[in-house]
Design brief:
The protein is mainly α. The longest helix has 20 residues. It is globular.
């Protein structure tokens, strides 16, 4: 069971987040009628890597989330709905708030560097 083996290094909360994110990636990719290779090409990744994100076999690095959202034609809060709580009136998060929210969602606490992200 390869899928379970890939998730064994993640704690339960991280595995749930990875699977939920993967389901939303797949849903939005299909809605846009994009192939794995097309999304991968937009990110500079292989289609196989996108498949691993979709299946929850690999965790998507937080730094790739904005680019992935753009590749799928959606906002980041649609990929990770918990981020919307800190959005400003336009629905935007500062880069620093964005990284902190993802760290919180993934259970990592404070970001390793509390210096502003530019």
């Amino acid at each position: 069971m390869r899928h379970a083996e890939a998730l064994h290094t993640l704690n339960d909360a991280e595995a749930r987040i990875a699977r939920g994110l993967g389901q939303r990636i797949r849903m939005f990719r299909r809605l846009q009628q994009l192939t794995l290779a097309e999304v991968g090409g937009r990110l500079g990744l292989s289609g196989q890597m996108v498949h691993k994100y979709e299946s929850g076999q690999s965790q998507l690095p937080a730094s790739r989330l904005p680019r992935l959202a753009a590749a799928l034609g959606v906002s980041t809060h649609l990929l990770l709905p918990g981020l919307a709580a800190g959005a400003d009136a336009r629905g935007s998060l500062s880069a620093q708030d964005f990284v902190r929210r993802i760290d919180t969602l993934l259970g990592h606490g404070a970001h390793a560097s509390d210096e502003p992200v530019h």
